[in-house]
Amino acid sequence: MRIVRYFCAVLLLLEGGCASFTSFQTADVLAKGETNFTVSGSLLYSLPEISNVYEEGNQFVTQFMLRRGISGNSEFQALISPNSFNANYKHLYFRAEKFMSSYTAGIGYTFLASSFDDQTHVFDVPVSLYLTYLPKEHFGITINPKVMYRYIGDESTVIFGGSLNLMLGKKIKFYPEGIIFYDAVIGTLFTGGGLGISF
After folding, report:
1. What does pLDDT average to in each consecutive run of 10 residues of the chain (199 residues)?
2. Helix-strand-coil percent breakdown of the chain, rounded to 5?
3. Strands (E), 82-138
4. pTM for the full model?
5. d(CA 25, CA 75)
6. Cis preceding-peptide flag for 48 (omega within 30 of 0)
7. Burial level of 127, CB count in 10 A (0-12/13-18/19+)?
């Protein structure tokens, strides 16, 4: 646990970025009153790299996520990085022995600045699905398709794509993850991957 706390502190001091693309969880929700924490780091790339709207296309994103169960099948999530904040509602609507699915909806804000006079404000409204296969208690595979409306600078756009992650572990869970998204208006492809640790 000491190593996990050290990892958290180091990640949160590093460069931030947009946390709306990442997942690092399964479709499951927490029991009412239960709390869970996840720290993560991801490398995100834009193809082609652009600077006129997104300021910096390639980023290292660090993130801290707090999850809190609010009923038997729903939870609240707060995602924080050095320059962004997201709040989500997650609802579990199907559970079987090895399969489960849920959906989330939320809002996000990211602040980008290359100088005092060059600042960009990004507002996201993401909606997503979580589809999880759990062949074993300590191993799972989750697909997370997502679409989001984004207002960035003085432009509006729609971004769609998703992530694929593995869940490894019981008490402390590790989430290696890959992502791919496409900005339908600007025409930019975002790819990347990272690792989350949940406890």
Report:
1. 50 53 96 96 79 61 95 95 93 96 96 66 95 96 97 89 97 96 89 95
2. 5, 65, 30
3. 84-95, 99-115, 118-136
4. 0.85
5. 13
6. yes
7. middle
